[in-house]
Write a structure and sequence with these properties.
CATH topology of the largest domain in chain A: Beta-Lactamase
Order of helices and strands of chain A: HHEEEHEHEEHHHHHHHHHH
Structural class of chain A: alpha+beta
Largest interface: A-B, 62 and 61 residues
Oligomer: homodimer
Largest sheet of chain A: 6 strands, antiparallel
Number of helices of chain A: 14
């Protein structure tokens, strides 16, 4: 009786653990953000195995090292700089051999690597470590340390291997997504650069406008999502110029009325270029409206005040500030201080006064 | 004794089921491809619940319908066209109410919708259906039909809800990834289009070259990955022209030696533009080499024969074919038949004979 009871209770615990695992798996896999996955994986490791600490290390294939790369604010920011060779520590061994390990007396294991403990002012007693395997490739190591309720067991290892399979998928998906994101931003930036290369006077303009927008976005405490929309809008604001002829785009001197009209098509054209891209629908309004004026005398729609999308009002200031502080064929660059004065003079007519008031303190006077 | 034994056995089965679930979850989450996820989710539903059939339906938010969109080759291609209103069937009810349901006698349930059975020549007896929920939003419905070993139970429902949580994350991640992919391709295409808008004679060139490359890629039975590299290369092959001045790009008449030299920089320039984008590293060689000639008299590196990357040899043929079959300032377009003759004449000198031999039958004579 007693032994079947125990088995039944143990089984009950196992079921609970597996239910817990499935819940944690859903949570981990519901993000494509590497740092979110990492934090959740660490929490899952601790919860599932009743461990004091958890960690997730990834392999840097350039240096063949494991790194923690712990996100800011997390306990153990000290670990951030620690890198472990693939021949160091239990984690290094697990990464190299792709075999899960339980070490219930860390001090007596010759593989134990105390440098990490020192860096984190921590005392490791027991370790359970499993490789993060995706389609036969080792991506990193998932580790839990110091089981609170006794030694790590084979059941713990089974659960942990299952968890690491789920984490490995999440890590791989996040990698793929991140690579695509990089490609997306890369092509956008590369093309903005290439566009500028036609006009020697505007070289670096897009990058600087992006930089100014980032400063003001930070000052406005924009969330991650809004910041991304603002920066994409900044990068793409002049993309409509891709269709403008050199004779107008690069003209050294004032444009005729007709040329100016063609040139001012670029904001509309830009919006048009982006119109078929679902993921960029939030960017279009600011690209469209970055030449609107606060007093309603801008283009293309003569919008005024708060009818102009917020991010377009920001780009308008950043764009003009950069134009003023760089040399042009027909005049030398203003100093930042002179340009600030000009922004203030046109605050309320050309520019949103709130944006100007936020912009000036956000940009250092000796700006690049 | 007997009853604890049974509990212990039942628990043992539950543990096995949960282990199975975790394994299936890893499998489902190891893809960002909607159709792969769908197939694996259906297989998982069948396996986990001992059911005869499984299905996964997603909600089309434009029409408020559930659709199967079953991939080719799968059993039940007949279902592909079936769409279910959110007020129809058990699945519609589950999608609308976001509440899991067991229906062990389908015939007597007023919600049962027999049209799907008719479309698939199938007889539904029992149904278990759960909403695919991601952060409170219903993405679709996961369903298993006709349990082989008896009625569906509460334990089945628990497992199925866990599975659907995991599938929902996978579906959502795939959606996000797909959206980013669309954005990436969208911006690349939009910019290629915009680039062409500077030169009235080449309008649509990029799209046509892509189309020809797709035909020849199909004829060569390229895998999905290679096809993608080929098509991206085709779209981006002239991207280096973004930096070429109009005076050269749009000149109506032969170029001077100097102008031609500048123009021929575009393949190198294109490779340079793409060089910082990790995800495009496979595209660069073909962009770089699409003006190399099979006999070694091309540019920029005077490569010859098989030293020229395969996809560059394909693009060279597609590119020239399109140039020949469209009007130019200095000559009318050739007919496709005339252009084919010209390709054959230059086969082995300008072009790879194998590519020409594959190209001609792949392109219909009355090509657009």
């Amino acid at each position: 009786m007693e032994s079947t009871d125990r088995i039944s209770t143990d089984n009950g615990i196992q079921i609970e653990k597996f239910k817990q695992l499935v819940g944690l798996a859903s949570l981990i896999n519901s993000s494509l953000d590497q740092s979110v996955i990492r934090m959740r994986a660490i929490e899952a490791a601790k919860t599932l195995l009743n461990a004091e600490e958890g960690s997730m290390m990834l392999i840097d294939r350039n240096t063949n090292e494991l790194y923690f790369d712990v996100v800011a604010g997390e306990t153990g920011t000290l670990l951030k700089k620690v890198r472990i060779g693939l021949d160091q520590g239990v984690a290094g061994w697990v990464a190299t051999n792709a075999v899960p390990q339980i070490v219930n007396d860390a001090g007596s294991d010759p593989r134990f690597y105390s440098a990490v403990d020192k860096a984190a002012s921590f005392e490791t007693r027991s370790i359970i470590a499993v490789p993060l395997l995706f389609q036969g490739r080792v991506l990193g190591v998932l580790e839990a340390v110091n089981k609170i309720t006794g030694p790590f067991t084979q059941e713990d290892l089974d659960l942990f291997v299952s968890l690491s399979d789920l984490v490995a998928s999440a890590v791989e998906n996040a990698n793929l997504h991140e690579e695509l994101r990089e490609a997306f931003f890369g092509i956008v930036l590369a093309l903005a650069d290439a566009l500028e290369s036609r006009d020697t006077y505007t070289g670096g303009h897009t990058q600087r406008v992006r930089h100014y927008c980032q400063s003001i976005g930070t000052a406005l405490q924009l969330g991650k999502n809004d910041m991304e929309i603002l920066l994409l809008s900044a990068i793409l604001h002049d993309i409509g110029k891709i269709g403008v002829r050199d004779a107008i785009l690069c003209k050294e001197g004032p444009l005729t009325r007709e040329e100016a009209a063609l040139m001012s098509e670029h904001s509309k054209k830009g919006a048009e270029i982006l119109s078929n891209i679902k993921a960029l629908r939030n960017v279009i309004p600011s690209v469209m409206a970055h030449h609107e004026r606060f007093d309603g005398n801008g283009y293309p729609d003569r919008l005024s005040g708060e009818d102009i999308p917020m991010f377009a009002r920001i780009i308008a200031v950043a764009d003009t500030f950069d134009a003023m502080t760089t040399d042009r064929p027909y005049r030398k660059a203003l100093t930042p201080a002179e340009a600030f004065a000009e922004l203030l003079r046109c605050s309320g007519t050309q520019f949103d006064p709130d944006v100007v008031a936020k912009f000036i303190p956000a940009i250092p006077e000796e700006t690049e």
